[in-house]
Amino acid sequence: MTPRSEPESDHTPAARVTTSDGSIERWFNIVVKAGLLASFAVVAIWSPEVVEGKNMLARAPLFLAPAIIVPVLARVRRWDPYPHLADALLSLPFLLDTLGNLFGFYDRYVSTDDVLHFVNWIALVAAFHAFRYRNVDDHRDAVLLGYGFGALAIIAWESFEWLISDDGPFAAGVPDALSLSYGDTIGDLVMSSTGGLIGSLIGRFAIGPRLIARRR
Fold first, then answer.
1. Which of 40, 88, 85, 48 is nearest to 64 (CA)?
2. Least crowded by CB within 10 Å, which of 65, 153, 166, 191?
3. How far apart are CA 208 and CA 160, in angstroms?
């Protein structure tokens, strides 16, 4: 008599791993979003001396936008499963930049700006791939696509900083407005582009294959 095979259930090791991975990504997303909201709440309510002249409240709409827009899009378009990893990675650069100002790292350590431009663009481009690989299996030109996205993002960011700087149209003549220099701008472009390349490699060879395998 041939033994009857047991039907597969959600309690198989593979299912447990998938559930665990999703739970980690969900909590990672919650921590990033909560940290971002709490940071701006501190700035808005207590206005610490360390953030004076940083135009932090002017940055709030841009910094908080991804944390709001992604859940709304997911709800409207009925994304299933919810892209927790992509959502968290997209908000992570804004959290790190805000914490860098809130804890005075930019004033205390000269290299903070370079380090965060590098790290933030790793996260930003990795987020691009995490969104892209939700529905795409094609790896062709993936690294270049991510790298190009990162390059466009740093150009947009430097343009935004100029708009709210003491040379820009929105903060000209404002006391303690953000001051920029040519060397700082070029350094940001180089560090962010390099971080974007690494983020694109991570997206192509780590995040992409994982998300593709999860869909199958």
1. 40
2. 65
3. 30
